[in-house]
Amino acid sequence: MKKIIVFITTLVFSAAANAAIYDTARVVSVTPSFEYVSRQKCEYVTQQSYQQQAPVAQPQQRGIGGAIVGGITGGIIGNQVGRGQGKTAATAIGAGVGAIVGDRMENSQQYQPAPQYTQPAPQQVCSTFQDRVTNGYEVTYQYNGKTDSIRLQHHPGQTIPVTITPGN
Question: 116 — phi, psi (to 5°)?
Fold first, then answer.
């Protein structure tokens, strides 16, 4: 039984001797560490100016003066040709043909092209830029008169926890 008590006592004191102690150390300086990451930003933009498309014909009001003058002229010329019933037919045909020719001559410019404008479709414009990102902090701290440093992923503040093991 004495051996068991000695063994348990030795085990307890051994565990106590190796137990870690926690304390805090004063932070002396914190230096952020950076890396550059390429990023791309895209957006859709539409040009503000308008572009002209092919003109589309727009009808204008038709004139009748050419048909009247052409009909009269054609009738006079037709009246000069033929005799009797043929003269009447030639006058009628001349007046009809003259009216058609006069109408076409006057109204051949009836369609004036009118420009139509449309806004172009949006275009995707992308730009690449370098973004500076913090990837950690180099922390210098003091504990019991000693200065040491460690790298952390977050900013520590004014103190950091330290673990002290007996014998070290």
Answer: -120, 140
C-alpha to C-alpha distance for 32 and 37, rounded to whole angstroms: 16
Q: HSE on the CB side for 17, CA within 13 Å?
A: 7
Q: What is the DSSP code (8-state) at residue 63?
A: P
Place of tokens 């730009």: 127
How far is residue 80 from each of residues 41, 75, 86, 119, measured CA to CA in Å? Answer: 84, 9, 11, 61
pLDDT digits (tens, 9 = 90+) for 47-60: 654 444 555 555 56
The pTM assigned to this predicted structure is: 0.39
DSSP 36: E
Alpha carbon distance 87, 89 (integer Å) = 5
Q: pLDDT (tens digit, 9 = 90+) per residue, 99-112?
A: 677 777 777 665 55
Place of tokens 């109408």: 103
Biggest alpha carbon–alpha carbon distance for the chain: 164
